[in-house]
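Issue: ligand-bound run for 4'-deoxy-4'-aminopyridoxal-5'-phosphate - logging full I/O for the record.

Environment: standard queue, default settings, no custom constraints.

Inputs:
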Amino acid sequence: EYIIQNEQLLPKAEASINFEDRGYYFGDGIYEVIKVYHGQPFAMDHHLDRLRSSAEKLEIPLPFEEKKMIDLLMELLEKNKVMNGLVYFQVTRGVEPRNHLYTRNSTAVFTAFTQPAQNLEETQKNGVDVWLTDDIRWLRCDIKTINLLGNVMVKREAADQNCQEAILHRSGTITEGSSSNLFLVKDKVLYTHPATNLILNGITRQLVIELAEQHQYSVVEEPFPVEVLEHADEAFITSSSVEITPIKSVKGQLSTTFDVGPVTKDLQAKFKDILPKSN
Ligand code: PMP
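Outputs:
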């Protein structure tokens, strides 16, 4: 199994991280996860655009050209023979003696690895249970940072309640999941939080909105209160890893159940259609 460290492909056992990497001290870095279907990365351009946007917001200088990044990632997929899986890649600000204040001339550190994909069959068909809890994260959730303590804390809380995902609200306004975006369906209209600083603008979210609109669904990108969950016809989460996964129950600060509805199923089918096919 190979990984990427800076511009090199190395056997995983040969990789080493510098003790003074700011990613390690401060979580000072950004990342992306791309799903791979039949050996082909899906929506790579979108992910690279978002990486660049995260980098700009944090003044992290990307270590090399996008073309180089793509070449390296493709080489890694081939080397690891990834057919259906994930490729994770991150850029930390680089190595400097520990100091909160960053300089603007560090050399960023690029790392990447691959993973097999989870089997989504059961959860996509029957849905998942989610745990409604407070959004305890910071106010720049639009940045895809590796600093994910708020996300990991609520994910653990959800799992301890036998839920697969935490759905978050800020003072009663639903934002998103701990590692996914949330959509509600009411009278065939889709509702999701707007892409502000309070959520990560998921690539899957963007593609689902596009698909829905192409197929004559209305999509309302507006904040809505938790109570709206109780009146929704359907609900689902989206992410690169779980695609479109229905919600079958909400527990915690509010309690409700959903059937896997026709709009969710329709969008799941339409989403499958745009995924890379075997060739
Ligand atoms: N929100 C958060 C907080 C996430 O971590 C993720 C997945 N990384 C998403 C939404 C979904 O994003 P995407 O569809 O780009 O995977």
